[in-house]
Design goal:
homodimer; 193 residues; alpha+beta; archaeoglobus fulgidus dsm 4304 fold; two-stranded antiparallel ribbon; globular
Chain lengths: 193, 193
């Protein structure tokens, strides 16, 4: 049984110019379940870099909010282009379970082909495979999200996804992280398609 | 009668080095009453500059969220040190009522003395005086805030302050703008004293 006010830390990145190698702000929003924002974090990662796992680990392990946190969420397994989050490593180093949410079933063939442009293709692809099987969860009638998770059972993961999806079709910390990250880069927030 | 989900745009600034003349991020949070975050805006103003009124006016008049907005709020009448918001001018140019919230009764003598260090003292002091009489509003038992407002009656202002003060002792858009603005500059949010 998951507590309705379980503290979830959800991340999203701001807009960026593809292949630019620029630094992109990444916003983490701490929510009480699907209810309200309790805190915020910020770091930066490099477009198509491979620093996301380390940056997020440091951010979480050094924040004063750490003790309250119970689970980490991402909107997709990559930040800033193809800066992949190694969710097993993140789980090991923070001791916090991780859930990846996808609005659509990821096209892994397409991802694999894109990653072949990188010199360290094998390393990146391994991080993707390492994240485990993609499962689906019906958050509302006829409305699904696709997820991967580490450190949680399937049942626990789905319970957390459902209880935190209150005001849109994705968990509230991800909705908020997206709005804030967009506003920081663009000057104002935009909704999702 | 104020609608419980009235869209309020609340501003707060990030941390900055006093007298540095640096640019400070200012975050605007759009809330549905005291309920939840619906959008975010960002601009920047100069420490001890006099560009706040113009920057905020432009930000509001150019955002796609403008039509939904019904009232603007600030946590104190200054941003980034002594960058004063001319709330009458802001009201005239955006056609949106403005509420200034203070947690403590402002010490106007102290403000006046500090402003005397500025070459344009008279101009800045006039903006302070122009904002009108400071009134008090009991948001909870034995818990008051001090406010000024333009474009609203005393009754309307107090109704808006009360309905939006849900999770702390200040209106929700200001609580959120503070958390986000702090996180952007410092990497993580801090609570208020």
């Amino acid at each position: 049984m998951i507590k309705p006010e379980i503290r979830i830390l959800g991340f999203d990145d701001g807009a960026f110019v593809p292949k630019s190698k620029e630094k992109v702000p990444v916003i983490g929003v701490i929510c009480r379940g699907g209810k309200f924002l309790d805190g915020a974090l910020k770091t930066e990662v490099i477009v198509d870099g491979l620093d996301a796992t380390e940056k997020i680990t440091k951010l979480i392990n050094s924040t004063r909010h750490k003790q309250q946190l119970k689970v980490i969420m991402f909107d997709g397994i990559t930040l800033a282009g193809f800066n992949i989050v190694d969710i097993k490593k993140l789980y090991e180093e923070t001791k916090l379970p991780v859930i990846i949410i996808n609005r659509k079933m990821p096209d892994l063939k397409k991802v694999k082909n894109a990653l072949k442009n990188f010199g360290d293709f094998r390393k990146r692809w391994k991080m993707i495979v390492n994240a485990g099987k993609i499962k689906e969860c019906e958050v509302r009638e006829n409305k699904k999200v696709y997820y991967q998770s580490v450190g949680l059972s399937e049942e626990e993961t789905e319970e957390i996804i459902k209880l935190s999806t209150t005001r849109s079709f994705i968990p509230e910390p991800l909705r908020l992280a997206h709005l804030i990250a967009t506003a920081i880069v663009k000057g104002e927030s935009y909704g999702r398609a």
